[in-house]
Amino acid sequence: MCREIDINRCISIGYIMRTHGLQGEVIIKFNPAYGETFEEIESLFLEIEGGLVPFLIEEDSLRYRTGETANISFKSYQNVDLVDPYVGCKIFVFNEDVIIDEEITDFSILEGYHITDTQKDINGEVIRVEDFSGNIILSIEVDGEEVMVPFNTEIVKQILHEQRLIHLDIPEGLLDLNE
Questions:
Q1: In which residue ranges of the chain is pLDDT below 70?
Q2: How are beta strands 114-117 and 165-168 bridged, if at all?
Q3: Tell me, what DSSP letter sits at residue 61?
């Protein structure tokens, strides 16, 4: 019996840019915050026709080109004609397999994270991260409305990357400023 991969248990960390050579190698582009993830995983998922399809990574095939691109090969795909249909496909891995480089300052990795503030019974999702001259702002959808919340230690209390969850402590009146 074949079970479908639950996309909610996964995170998109990049996509296949193009093929490289004739031996089935591809060039992937990824968010630099997730670069170390590729060193630890043996497989990944490609989004194909709305579903996630597993691909085994050929051992020792990972070669970094830049801080956000790398070459990899998939097991049983040693021909450019076999991998060419996957150019442009998004790459996913299980949330628990993600390794985040804490030195990275690209906060866009927080897009799609669930937001909760249990003190005020607020739940939402980060839909965008804005950088206004070094001031990071989370655009959050709460009850169908978009609200903006500063990203700082006074408000952001905990980030759980494996669960894609951010715990906030939003000060009284801050959400009223968005109206």
A1: 1-2, 101-105, 118, 175-179
A2: parallel
A3: -
What distance in Å separates the CA atoms of residue 130 and residue 142, rounded to the nearest whole number? 17
CATH class of 107-178: mainly beta
Domain ranges (residues) in the chain: 7-97, 107-178
Give the C-alpha separation, 51 to 46, whole Å. Answer: 8
- Residue 141's contacts (CB-CB under 8 Å, 6 or more residues apart) are 124, 125, 127, 147
What's the confidence (pLDDT) of residue 122?
83
Name the DSSP class of 24: T
CATH number of 7-97: 2.40.30.60
pLDDT for res 86: 97
Residue 39 · residue 87 · CB < 8 Å: no
Write out pLDDT tens, residues 50-65: 899 999 999 999 999 9
- Tokens (6 digits) for 71: 């070459």
Comparing C-alpha atoms, which of 142, 52, 156, 149 is closest to residue 94?
52
Give the integer Cα–Cα distance in Å for 39 and 93: 13
Rg (CA), the chain: 19
Q: What is the pLDDT of residues 34-49, one digit of tens each?
A: 888 888 899 999 999 9
pTM, two decimals, is 0.67
Residues 6+ apart with CB under 8 A from 118: 167
